[in-house]
Queue: 3 jobs
Job 1
Amino acid sequence: MSAPSELRSGSDHRVRIAGLPRGPAQAPRPATPMAASTPPGDPRPGSHSATEVEVERAAQAVVDAQAAVSNAARAVGEAAARARTAAAVATVAASAAATEAATSAGAVVRAEEDARAAAAARLAARLQETESVAAASGEFAHRGAAAAAQIASVRVAEMAAADRAEQTSNAVATEAVLHAVRAATSAAALAASAATLAVEAEAAASLLSNASAAATAARAVAAAVEAKAAVVATAAAAAAEASRKEARLTHDVLHDELTGLANRRLLVDRLTQALARAGRSGMTVAVMYLDLDGFKSVNDTLGHAAGDQLLVGVARRLQKCLRETDTAARVGGDEFVVVCEDLSHPSDGPLVAGRLETALAAGVMVGDLLVPVLMSVGIAVSGPASQPLDMLAEADTAMYRAKGGRG
């Protein structure tokens, strides 16, 4: 055989076959850089909080685990490549051994072939063990990476919770500060309001003092006015009483005391005024002189009180039969005079006298008795030059002629 062959026993088997190049030299794997860790509790300027340091450590552990997994995978790949190369070498060696066995003598060739086959089997078993170890290393690396990722997520969650707690605490503190500021502002406003109210209270007290003085003055003025009003009222009452007395005296002077009819003085005055108006208007004035027949028998039979009651009843009956412009007067014991003015014709006087006679003849109540009243009437009618006393005398004369011998 022209191609040299070399076989060594033991744990290191190397097969060199002519025409096959040596495997490329494996470059040494670079060492995985490990991040320098800061020991816990190492205070450095600008360092993060303990939670952030732990999170960084967990992230670095994840990175380291990933690097380890990558290195393990690369080692597995390299081991597989070496195993394939070794298998190829073993195959070539087996082929070469077979070739040599074919050319060598029986037992030696078979022994060498068996040895080579055993060596190849052992190498394959070691390769399988190496692949199993590499696979186990990769699984462990993956589990470590998952655990590191879970720890990192827990750390991140804890950090987020801490951040939220810090934000909540800051928000609560800010709200408390705002409440304190608002409370201080409200207190300041209340203090200002209290000061304003105090000033207003002082002003009110001053006004009250002035009002009290004004009230005292007003009471004094009211008392003076009341006193003056009392004086005025007294004077007014005295004046009214004097006026009433004067009116009563005037009435008594001009009216009959018993019947309230006009007396002779008022009769003459009103007759004078009626004649003056008749002279201007051309109307007629009639004077009727009335005398009650049988009045003396009433006094003698029923008494003077009954006679007075009869005279009052006659006076009321005459006033009901006359107009407001007419005048009825009592001029003697049982003698009455009626003055009717504004008559359009001299014959109107007798008509009025007839109504009066009829009204009195119907009777006047004296106590429980209805006493018919008869009367004698004398009438005088005015002319262009008539005088009051002359008309009264003419009517009186006519009444006596009418009366004749009646009492």
Job 2
Amino acid sequence: MLYWKGDTSDEFYFISKGTIKLYNDQGNAFIKYSNGDMFGDSDALLDLPRDGKAQAITTVVLKSLQIKQFEKLFLNSEDTCLQMIVNARKKRDRHLMLMEKANERVRKKTLDANLVTDLVKSINDEKRN
């Protein structure tokens, strides 16, 4: 486990090798990141708690950047820094939308499974009568 939903976010990560998935609070995977991707940035740049649980699904090699390091690197690059923050907000909004879609898929599968169970029970009841 790399981090849990609600954890403080004072760094973000770059994946050199491997794959991680983010999971919402109901345990549903909502996005996957792999080689060359950056994750954790939307939480860290917006100074918000982690929006999901991050778990490696393969062996991973990560590089991390502390927010304090980020601030020093981009001290004289206000436009770049602002653009990264705007992009972080968009990414966070996308995560929230994907979390809801993941929950909806699980709800639909559960409803479908319940319908099949009810149908089988109804057929079995009719056979008994």
Job 3
Amino acid sequence: MKTITVNIIDKDRFLSTTVHDKLNKIKGVKAQCYQTINEFLNSKYTKQSNLIFVDIHIHKNNYHELNAWDLLSHFSQDPNTPIVLLANDYDTELVTKSLNMGANDYILKSNYTIKLIEFTVKKYLLTNKI
């Protein structure tokens, strides 16, 4: 079985570490976590990404950092890398903008559990989108 790389970009270190640890227990999955998009883009795993989870509001506290739309633009030339956005709120404008820019899915943080993230990874594995 091929190993896939799942990247989690979220400023919430506890959440991203918890998801990271759970995903690394799935056979064939190597998870990495980052607190900023810049940190992720400067890592060696950027080109090895098979699935990316990113907090849509990651730029809110630091305007010098790239935001979720910068990431979507960066990966727009690579439609084979699914990007799933994570958010604390359901803002119809944000969802629409994100999906129009190439996001593959949108998950509300208040509604998800680690099981939902795990299910999403397995869904992409089973549907051969990775």
